[in-house]
Structure prediction request, 286 residues.
Amino acid sequence: MDEQPVLGIIGGSGLYSMGELVDIEERSIDTPFGVPSSPVLLGRLHDKPVAFIARHGIGHVLAPSEVNYRANIYALKMLGVKKVLSISACGSLREDYSPGEIVIPDQLFDHTFLRPRTFFSDGLVVHLSVSDPFCSQLSDQLETSCRKVGVKVHRGGWYITIEGPRFSTRAESNTYRAWGMSIIGMTTSPEAFLAREAEMCYAVMAHVTDYDVWRHSEDDVTADMVFKTVVENTTLAQQALGDLVENFVDEDCSCQHALQDAISTAPERVNPDTRERLSLLVDRYL
Prediction:
């Protein structure tokens, strides 16, 4: 399939088995940052081209800190993707965000410390504006689709990304609540920031799987609990995704011009090797 995908989806393997997905092609891609978590699955959904990456690899073999976020985003960029939807599991840090529901967050707090966070280094300095890290246009479309298929969805919320792979202690969970965080997960940082550096719109469909460990009336969160809720939500997620693609509106967005005023290094001083490696991202400005 040589068409430019209208949407790139990063998520679990449950979305690969959508009955409506046809003309499927698996493509291995090498990027300047290595290989993605999985081969990219290209196909047509409601007669529109889409691209999928399994964030944790086929069979869930990569821990959150082992995911090659840079390669995943760059591979989608190489395919011409302009808009990226993340499908992720999360814990609720609010009483009113219940397991089985969907959250489309509008803010992000990066509490990770082991992961490469940027494409830019080695003689090319970029100071990116990410005051609003999620694309409001793509989030609007996602919310509309979720509501149309009957998903209980919450629009807005602060998403904190922790390093993992362990779950929180009660002290940590209650601290994040005191900070005003709404949901907690392990993968949205640095994914969202890399998408912005690649000038791609990015939104999250966050599946609430548990109440983390702050709510004493609930069982402690376990991996089995998380995966059970994700499996139960897969059908609704597929329906919402199908509606999103079927009614997709490809609008221009400020996300797609994010580097316009962000590159600080004088063009003549950019390391030639770095410029060549990042030509897909910076050639239009340098």
